[in-house]
Amino acid sequence: GQNIDQPTEMTATEGAIVQINCTYQTSGFNGLFWYQQHAGEAPTFLSYNVLDGLEEKGRFSSFLSRSKGYSYLLLKELQMKDSASYLCAVLDSNYQLIWGAGTKLIIKP
Amino acid sequence: ETGVTQTPRHLVMGMTNKKSLKCEQHLGHNAMYWYKQSAKKPLELMFVYSLEERVENNSVPSRFSPECPNSSHLFLHLHTLQPEDSALYLCASSVGQDNTDTQYFGPGTRLTVL
Question: How far are the Cα atoms of A50, B68, B85, B98 from residue B55, in angstroms, in the given order?
Answer without folding.
Answer: 25, 12, 23, 11
